[in-house]
Write a structure and sequence with these properties.
This protein is mostly helical. The chain has 13 helices and two strands, in the order αααααααααααβααβ.
């Protein structure tokens, strides 16, 4: 019963149900912690994160299938704008089928840790991984560097942003810098002003007419979400996510495959990633993100933990959890 009502709130259903009681002051205060979604935090590890020219370059690269080994897969293949910047499948499908569900890139600029296990600590570091992954795009940094250096228009755009020569032998640097351009574009993929946000705005201003536009069944689910069901414990704040990692017992679908270690493996991956916040390609290698990285500890209780996904745009998602276990 609780799950059904919470789902109704999330999907904004509109069937007739009894009028819910009005929220009291404490409940209203809880609701208002979920809206509005303020502007994205800065990323000092990427000096071009908010550069419009970098964003234009990143947008071009995002849709360029030449980054893949077979010339048929772009970032937008798995992060399709028509599908909420995801792919609409339980598991990722690039050159091969992956083992995890593709999360949406909407509002990715707010994420502290990227991917389900947090194995990367910035959108620019994450952007290079699918390019090189054998199961995703399979292109690699050498192929990428040759593409950037060999296409006159792409090379000119790249050099105008980064002020560095597009040397086909500089694979590591070009992978990092194209990742930073991709992040600049992805930071513009923002989803706000949902029906819930408009309801929260009405609550904040005492606009009863605006409040009444929010479906009654959704308000009943919302009351459970912030109250008895306590969904907000993990799905907190304007992103409806605490950004942390939890093991909630999601079933393993392929019993023959090795168990997914989740955050336990992710901590080790992000610490040794040459493109992390403390690495040579970071624009702030001694800053707060690098310090946060240094404080990570790999402990056994992290085994099987996965990042809490945002619930924004959840109605557009056809599969749920890190392995697409539920529809």
């Amino acid at each position: 019963m609780i799950a059904a009502a919470v789902l109704a709130f999330t999907l904004r259903a509109s069937q007739a149900v009894p009028t819910p009681p009005r929220l009291d002051a404490k409940e209203i205060a809880r609701v208002l912690t979920h809206s509005p979604l303020a502007g994205p935090p800065p990323d000092p590890t990427n000096a071009h994160a908010d550069d419009p020219a970098a964003a234009r370059l990143g947008q071009f690269l995002f849709f360029d299938k030449r980054l893949s080994a077979n010339g048929e897969i772009a970032c937008a293949t798995c992060h399709d704008p028509a599908r909420c910047f995801a792919d609409g499948k339980p598991l990722s499908q690039g050159l091969a089928t992956g083992k995890r569900h593709v999360p949406s890139l909407l509002n990715v600029a707010w994420q502290r840790w990227l991917t389900w296990d947090g194995r990367v600590d910035s959108p620019w570091a994450q952007a290079g991984r699918p390019i090189e992954s054998a199961s995703e795009m399979g292109g690699g940094r050498v192929r990428l560097a040759r593409l950037v250096a060999g296409d006159p228009d792409l090379r000119a755009a790249y050099e105008s942003v980064f002020g560095t020569h597009a040397d086909p032998a500089a694979g590591d640097r070009i992978l990092a810098e194209t990742g930073k351009a991709l992040e600049a574009y992805e930071r513009k993929l923002v989803s706000v002003d949902s029906a819930f946000d408009r309801f929260a705005t009405a609550l904040r201003s005492g606009d009863e007419t605006g409040e009444a536009r929010y479906p009654e069944v959704a308000r009943r689910g919302l009351a459970l979400f912030i109250g008895k069901a306590n969904c907000r414990l993990c799905h907190a704040g304007p992103l409806f996510s605490d950004g942390e990692f939890h093991n909630i017992g999601v079933p393993t679908l392929d019993k023959s495959a090795p168990r997914d270690a989740g955050r336990y493996e992710g901590v080790e991956e992000v610490r040794r990633d040459p493109f992390n916040a403390a690495g040579v390609h970071s624009d702030d290698p001694k800053g707060p993100r690098a310090a946060e990285l240094a404080a990570l500890a790999r402990t056994s209780d992290l085994w099987g933990e996965f990042r809490t996904p945002t619930l924004r745009n959840v109605a557009l998602q056809p599969a749920f959890f890190h392995n697409g276990a539920f529809t």
